[in-house]
Specification:
With 260 residues, this protein is of the alpha/beta class. The chain has helices at 34-40, 69-82, 94-105, 122-127, 130-148, 154-162, 172-179, 182-192, 199-203, 219-231, 247-250, 252-257, and strands at residues 11-14, 18-23, 44-49, 87-92, 110-116, 209-214, 235-240.
Length: 260
């Protein structure tokens, strides 16, 4: 893959040592990792990837036909430059979708991976988790038409994954900034639900994987974690009590303890 122009604009680095590559989620930014990186950067080179369309970056150019290869092209440039000998991979929410897909390609030297509530909803189809799939369809059948019409429903996504009405408790300025990302979130949903990989791909991923979910999160998030633990040969699921989808910002110590 070719290195994108201006690749240095797509990541931040903190600390030195064994590399960890972080990928934040939808309706989020690299600030997602602030609390974890404050600790991990003492002994690690923490590389924080910025999703296209986030962190003040321009939107991706694949809205007509969304593909995670857009993220791959950027990540490839970062990996070649900053951690070509190997790295640990960490993703949250949609960032977990990208991280899992990156590892499944088995092109890049991923040594281990931690996924905090990856929203890789495509795995539910593999295991035919009918209850979770129905909950997901019900939500998307309501959310997607409204979002495409430009209605400000981005907070509904956060509330869905948190399994609680949390969005309205965010500061007004934060809510306004997050709603600007709604178009990108629609793109992310398209990628989340694409079955680009199969059970054999998942079974063949031998690296250690830590799967982390909050006890208070959506049943759909729990179903995804359960499915991945079943399908990935070296995966271990961990549940953080009292946490929801925002766990990496609210439960720092437990999230650190759960990493690989």
């Amino acid at each position: 893959m070719s290195v994108s122009l201006g690749i240095e604009n797509y990541y931040e680095i903190y600390g030195e040592g064994q590399p960890i590559l972080f990928i934040h989620g939808s309706y989020a930014s690299t600030s997602t990792w602030k609390k974890l990186v404050e600790e991990l950067s003492k002994n690690h080179k923490c590389i924080l990837f910025k999703l296209p369309g986030h962190c003040g970056l321009s939107d991706p150019k694949d809205f007509d036909k969304p593909t995670v290869k857009t993220e791959f092209a950027l990540l490839d440039g970062i990996i070649q430059k900053e951690c070509p000998q190997g790295f640990h991979l960490v993703g949250h929410s949609y960032g977990g979708v990208v991280a899992l897909a990156l590892a499944l390609e088995q092109i890049w030297p991923v040594l281990g991976m931690t996924l905090y509530e990856p929203v890789s909803t495509w795995v539910l189809d593999l295991v035919q988790e009918k209850k979770a799939l129905q909950l997901l369809r019900d939500f998307l059948n309501d959310y997607i038409p409204k979002a495409k019409q430009g209605m400000p429903v981005g907070g509904d996504v956060i509330d869905f994954w948190c399994h609680a009405p949390v969005f309205n408790h965010f500061p007004e300025g934060v809510r306004e900034q997050l709603l600007l990302l709604q178009k990108n979130n629609l793109r992310h949903w398209s990628i989340c639900t694409q079955a680009s990989y199969n059970q054999d791909n998942l079974n063949a991923l031998s690296i250690p994987v830590s799967l982390v979910v909050g006890s208070e999160s959506s049943p759909v998030a729990h179903a995804i974690i359960h499915a991945l633990e079943h399908l990935l040969p070296s995966a271990e699921a961990r549940c953080i009590q009292g946490a929801n989808h925002l766990l990496v910002t609210t439960h720092k110590d437990a999230c650190l303890a759960a990493m690989w």
